[in-house]
Fold this sequence. Notes:
A 5-stranded parallel β-sheet has the order 2-1-3-4-5, with helices on both faces. The chain has a 4-stranded antiparallel β-sheet with strand order 6-7-8-9, with no helix packed on it. The protein has a 3-stranded antiparallel β-sheet with strand order 10-12-11. The protein has 9 helices and 12 strands. The chain is an alpha/beta fold. The protein is elongated and about 60 Å long. The chain is 40% helix and 22% strand. Helix 7 (151-162) packs across helix 8. A hairpin with a 3-residue loop joins strand 11 (210-213) and strand 12 (217-220). It has helices spanning 11-23, 34-39, 41-45, 61-69, 85-93, 106-116, 151-162, 170-178, 186-200, and strands spanning 3-7, 27-31, 49-53, 76-80, 98-101, 123-126, 129-132, 137-140, 146-148, 167-169, 210-213, 217-220. It has 2 domains: 3-116, Rossmann fold, CATH 3.40.50; 123-220, Arc Repressor Mutant, subunit A. 26% of the residues are buried.
Amino acid sequence: MAKIALVEDDLILKEFIQLNLELEGHEVITFTNGTAAVEGKIELSRCDLIILDNMLPGKSGIDICHEIRMQYTTPILFLSAKSNTQDRIEGLRAGANDYLPKPFDLEELLLRVQVLLPKTSQQYFIGPWEIDFDNLTAVNVQNNGLHQFSKKEAALLKLFTLNENKVLPREEILDKVWGEDAYPTSRTIDNFVLTFRRIFEPDQKAPAFFHSIRGVGYKFTNKNK
């Protein structure tokens, strides 16, 4: 898990990016104007990556980038509605490592984030199963069993692991994994959890990890922790 600073004044876009970065397992801190970002530049420097909008109230992204680069080498990814070649050159000359014009594709943003972050393993254990969220796989270290997850399975499993011992309502799960524009039923979640139980539970009738909370949703506990 990486710590990422997001400096973005568009509140809807900020929440969208923050949610998807958190679903990837990252910790996200946010700033909504340039002045606050500069005042918190020491905190910015302690992050693994800074995602920086260029057009900000208070202080521009270019100015912030210059100030950070005077002292720190934290990777910086520019997001900007300014998309012509000269604007990109200006951002890169200010010290940014990458520049992504708006509007952008979410998958492209996540890939660029992955490239800029320090290379760390996203492995996690559930019982004897070693989960690799980068490669969407689970390997049983006792018998070399292998399961390949779909992207939705991995996203749901990541949501559970980020919320250990917390009851997750069905509505929250649907919103965070499928989004507001998708229309799955709560039965969809049940089917995914049944799949997880078949893989991870020694006794599916007495789950040790994936617990049904009647009338609410599910809770994940991990006895390995």
